[in-house]
Amino acid sequence: QVQLVESGGGLVQAGGSLRLSCAAVERTFNNYAMGWFRQAPGKEREFVAGMGFNGANTRYADSVKGRFAISRDYTKNMVYLQMNSLKPEDTAVYYCAADRLQYRIVSPTAPVDFDSWGQGTQVTVSS
Known about the structure:
The protein is mainly β. The chain is built from no helices and eleven strands.
């Protein structure tokens, strides 16, 4: 239901930082919990971070806790993923996604619970 466009991926040295951006082109963006997922070659799509529709209740995969932070800016229709202390294991295609239901204050974590996806942006972390 929400059109999403991702940007900000690239090649980063281990220990570096990167911020991914996800732009929503529809006002209904405000009504949805948002999530970030990633998928590495040969791996399943993995939940990374999520935030409730109202900007509350962030949640993170154990592998990124303390290093990544999700945020959103309603005035700009943007969602961000700040990634710090990057590791080679973080290398993946990263996707932003919008919840298939409106008004959830805690984002789901399963891909099937999201029905709007960005095109993905590649993040590569060198050792």
